[in-house]
Amino acid sequence: MSLDHSPTGSLVVYGDDIEEAMSPNRSVAAVAVKDGDASVYKIIHGFLKQKNNSIINVAASVARKAASNKLSRKTSDVFDTLIQQQQSRLGNKTGPLLSGISYCIASCSMILLNKVVLSSYNFSAGISLMLYQNLISVVILVALEFFAVISTEELTWKLIKVWIPVNLIFVGMLVTGMYSLKYINVAMVTILKNMTNILTAVGEIYVFRKCQNKQVWAALCMMIISAVSGGMTDLSFHLIGYAWQILNCFLTAAYSLTLRRLMDTAKQSTKSGSLNEVSMVLLNNALSIPFAVILIIVFNEWEYVYQTEVIREPMFWFFATASGLLGLAISFSSVWFLQETGPTTYSLVGSLNKIPISVAGVLLFNVPVSVENLFSIVFGLFAGIFFAKAKMSKS
């Protein structure tokens, strides 16, 4: 999934690097200078050094006109290539930064907004909130596909049958995550989520026969110590919330392992023989809707939603809608970030991203924190970063 933006060559000319230009085009540029158009060439070269896109575009237009009137067609192509290379290089520098910032903002905001909806508004219908968020995602994705902004695979019955086990785990993962967040403070949720790494690592041994190195196991032990000490020192400890979160860790690990196991089968079940990330997002959200409706009826959640006063507050719907939009934003920004960097950087940033989430969760929701609990949280965050680096060194 990683797209490495390696330098494509020497057509970009900076200062004394003009001699590094590709040999077939070097002679063309020399001809341009020799033919009396050195001033035009130097102007373009100066604009490129300033890295100003607007000026570059103007200069490109001037260069093309000059080339059509005075220079050969090959010289015009040199100018065009210079412009394209410069703009590509600028894009390569800003892409990872912008995608990383977008991913961090979306993921942090999503967790905090869900905490606001579930705790601050005391909303107890986690399944209904999940259904609403998934409906928002499906509507937006269908609209984007209708206007040809994105393309997704056709949802055939053959593909749906393969994907149902993945989706059932996905629904369970979302629901348990909602209920755990209602009872546990954000900082402890992020630390307890580290347990997912332990379960996934053990699952990889039995499912994929993939062994882990000593650094990985050391990081996993640190995570266990952090989770246990964090729970023991948590001043706002809630047994039901911890039970939901432990179940969420099992389901999250199962989702990751099942997804990787069934990915090839799912691709073979599509007409094109491939399954992109956007299609997976649509598939998960669309298939979760009927399962969510069934769960709402079984647990009689619809009656609670109908009677609760909180749904009559406009700000509640604002936060619920915003969290739904951010859920979709996470999907797109994570894919964008992966394409701009790679799994290694993505994993490390994901671990570092827990730090601002934990700090914001403690400050925004006035969570009572003891020194011991704060130490366990910091220790857990460090363990997460150490785990990511250990996986990076292994890969």
What would you say this structure looks like, in words?
- Residues 106-381 form the Sugar phosphate transporter domain.
- Its main location: membrane.
- Keywords: Membrane, Transmembrane, Transmembrane helix.
- With 395 residues, this protein is mainly α.
- The protein has helices at 23-50, 53-69, 73-120, 126-146, 157-183, 186-192, 195-207, 214-233, 239-268, 277-298, 301-307, 314-340, 343-352, 354-364, 371-394.
- Helix 3 crosses helix 12 (314-340), helix 5 (157-183) packs antiparallel against helix 9 (239-268) and helix 6 (186-192) packs antiparallel against helix 14.
- The radius of gyration is 26 Å and the shape is globular.
- The model is unreliable at 1-37 (pLDDT under 50).
Total of DSSP H or I helical runs spanning 4+ residues: 15
Secondary-structure class: mainly alpha
Quick one: how many beta strands? 0
Helix content: over 70%
How far is the first residue's CA from the last residue's CA? 15 Å
Shape from CA axes?
A: globular
